[in-house]
Amino acid sequence: MIKMAKLLEINGLDVSFSTGQDTVYAVRDVSINLNPGEVLGIVGESGAGKSTIGNAIINLIEPPGKIINGEILFQDQNLRSLNDQEMLNIRGHKIGMIFQDPQTSLNPLMTIGAQLLETINTTKKLFGKEAREKAIDLLQSVGIEQPEARMKAYPHQFSGGMRQRVVIALALAGDPDLIIADEPTTALDVSTQAQILDLIKAICSKRKLGVIIITHDIGVISNIAQRVAVMFNGSVVETGDVKQILSSPDHEYTKSLIAAVPRGNVKVERFTSIDYIEGGAQTLKRIAVKEHWLGDSLVDTKSEIVISVEDLNKEFVLKKAMFKRNRSNLQAVKDVSFSIKTGETFGLVGESGSGKSTVARLIAGLLRIDKGTVKLFDKDVTNKFKDKEVVTAQRSLQMIFQDPFSSLNPKMSVEDIVAEPIRYYKTATSNRQVKQIVRDLLDHVGLGANAMIKHPHEFSGGQRQRISIARALASRPKILICDEPTSALDVSVQAHILNLLKDLQDEMNLTMLFISHDLPVIHQMCDRIAVMRQGSICEIATTNDLFNAPNHSYSKHLIKLMPKINFSSS
Amino acid sequence: MKKMRATPVIKENNRKSTNVILKNLSQPATLVSGVLLFLIALCAIFAPLIAPTNPYDLAVVSIMDGRLAPGETMFDGTVAWFGTDGAGRDVLSAIIFGLRTSLTVAVCSALIALTIGLLVGMTAAFFGGRVDAFLMRIVDIQLSFPAILVALVLLALLGKGIDKVIIALAIVQWAIYARTVRASAIVERRKEYIEAANCLGLSSFRIIWKHLLPNSISPLIVLATLQTAHSISIEATLSFLGVGVPITEPSLGSLIANGFDYILSGAYWITFFPGIMLLATVAAINIFGDHLRVLLNPRLSK
Amino acid sequence: MLTFAIKRIMQSVVVLFVMSLIVFSMINLIGDPVDMLVNPESLPEEIDRVRQDFGLDQPVHVQYWKFLAGAMSGDLGNSFIFGRPALTLIIERFPATLELATSALIIAIIVGLPLGIYAGLNPDGWGARIIMGGSVLGISIPTFWLGLMMIIVFSVLLGWLPVSGRGETANFLGIESSVFTLDGLRHLIMPAINLALFKISVVIRLARAGVEEVMALDFIKFARARGLSSQRIVRSHLLPNILIPIITVLAIEFGTLIAFATVTESVFAWPGLGKLVIDAIVNLDRPIVVAYLLFVVTLFLVLNLIVDIIYAALDPRVRLQGDML
After folding, report:
1. How far is A70 from chain B (nearest CA, A)?
2. How far apart are CA A158 and CA A153, in angstroms?
């Protein structure tokens, strides 16, 4: 077999970021190569340095970042030896790049036609009618219908998926030989993600492009890449064939990473062997819940049904107007009914806009209910915000939120955050006891007591979620509502947090309402699941039934879209 | 959805922010302006003790000392470093006292405006809906008229006097505090830690006081600084135009107005030095405020 | 678009009514309204007769109605000092102020925009530091004091420019202005630059902040990744995105300029609206104050309206709503 020249070869790349006194290595001694027509995935969690490599190839690293070492050989030419003008000829013309967020990648004040034409003018040196024809051609090839009309449209007039197609068209405008795609589907809806990945696959095989796809999502890698480089903390820990790496990974980190990915077909009790990353957190003292303050509770739960929701309805006003006909409302939740038993984990799954988060907030009393009833422990709590008994019942319901960034008050110390409900409701007898309880809770969630004096910004995302969980525990809840608690976290961190939630549920016999858009996660965590779409429930079933024999067409659709990662070697 | 790091890249955040503070403070501009501000504040507070003479003590002032050039000696032996004005008052002393008036008016009006603005802005942000729309409509209407105009008209109707000037300036300024607080508070209101506080069952008052307020006020600090500088300027302008503080307690603006008449006859110092002082004060506060803004704005990515 | 414009116009009319109410109540609350219409030193019989003549012995809502009626037909009383209708005087003096404010705005844009954009594109260089330092100075210098200093230097010491007043005017394309004569220009230069100085600094800071903000956005990065040159990026991507907010701010600042011209007109004895009003305030010529208030309120409302409409016309996100493809 003739040995083909490599399209791209990176040797010993070092990229550093200097801020004042500290110098951080974003990328350390990385070597990667890519053959023409091949799709290489670079996978890693946040901070791994994968995006930095993409930026380094076309020399778009912004100060204080700097490439210190290494050579980047593209079609046998060392890109690092090129000056600015020569680099301009490479960008767009030979190497195209796609970024994550299509909404911000396009100039909002220029029509997409204008943006296409300027790229074609610059890279292909075509003008006038020829340029226009090429632009229309490009739009068609990325699947945009009625391209002539769309040329005059502005970016905000497109939906997310369509915008990303435009972005791809722009990257292809110069007929490059290599495309770097940096998290191209992360900002998109599940259904759109699949479409865009298919598009990338089709285009690349048709044009025989080399593609580097940078992502944190193993599902994406298994869908479209042939080879993969796994990155951790700035270095490449393992490279190889995708099938091989998925079925028998070599490096400890890769093993941890793969073990942490929630499976859509098999339910595990806990995620195992994931200690490579956050390791050390698990060696802290755990409380014997039954004897601890945590074990006492406000509400006596004799009832079998903990949460009961009937015909729940909620409408949001989108456009206010004087005349009724101009008002537009959004029916966020429509006639939703379900009930949750003690100790059960009930899942609400759906895409964005399905109303699942709204349902959670209605149950928690954070939003006003328009129609319908909510009962906690057989007590009707619908819109009863002042009733003392209701308030007590509602205190036994706590919520874990999605964004670890914004769910903690940045100006309070961790101790104050966790202690607040204890102090406010005076559920402890002395300040010393309060401090002890806080220490115990922080240990129990895997953080450690010396977190008490620190502030939220000193912690990572996963650690912040632990603080949130500790705060929820400080109310001694019987019900825990988890609204996408791990959607903003890396896969390995997610595994830890999900383990923690499972452990807590076992210890405290918690009833959980678990909300997510991620089917594999739902599969791992829930006993029964409700599928939601545009405010209504399509189907309620046990986990087994839903995943093996879904009834509703939408459920079938969602399950079909789940990434089918083959972790076995067959 | 943006992913959080598994481990934070910036290790010791405490050390980081101290470094930033030190780095900012050691920049020459901040240092100079900070020191200058400190001296000015001292002058203002201890005016009677610092000034060489009391220019408003009619017993001491004598027309014989009129229009002395800078550096010349007055009748009673004190040196008039900045000269004297037509009535024999030592310009340096007048400046020190004038500074006191200017600063008093500016700081008092800023405090009143800040309080009112804070109340209105937080109320609008917390309650939202119609309350918010109504309050902000009033704010918008007021803000569409230039400060100087509103102040002029108010003073025309209120009359002269330091208290009237303070009131007028407070009325002119509250709206921008309200809008700034409301903008900041509305963003914070949507954040999940407020929802969490609701979940915990805390009272509205506690949520506003302990959670919403502390996180909404940092832009106010910068604003207050810059607005103080701005109101010193406006007050000076008003006094210059003759509608500001009364002649018995002149501010720097009135001093400049006084000196206007002497320009053509060559006694430039009566206008010049108060002006330089005004410029220096306002500039110092502005520079300080600018750097405060950089300081309080965490550009460091988490 | 049309419904948007109509809605805004209706809102403005409402505000105008509210403002007229406020002005009227202020007049009534502060002292005897007769003082506003009559020379305070008249005989008691005179005062009573004026009171009757003007219907000031009638209930308040009738008075307000008469006031409103008068206002809409342009009658806001006569000035004490000049004895002529207040509104007429204001309209006569307005062109001079307009000329001054417009010149200042043009100077501020021509000088401030390029400097601010440069400072934003090269933020770490010495040029940027000097420019930004200068801008702090610019917003700190008291306008009136600077005017005095300018007079001292350029008129008294150097004798290059006239001390005060407005020069000769000439007519060009139907506009009567002093920029068309040399004498006019000589008189206009100092006041215009004086008024412009503060604004130049504001424009510089606005432009620089805008550049910093936009350059950090993703579409700039994507433009670079597509191989577009820096010049093209600045021209097609940066400028349009900073100019729209800057234009809208400046349009409102124009209103401030007209108000602030008061100061410059006092210093340079420029025969515009501002000087008229200051004299009126000092001399207790209240009809002029009232007329000025209402005139200026109307002016600002119109200005704000125009700004909103311009903004809607320029930004496609506002112009073309809906139509998701």
Report:
1. 23
2. 8
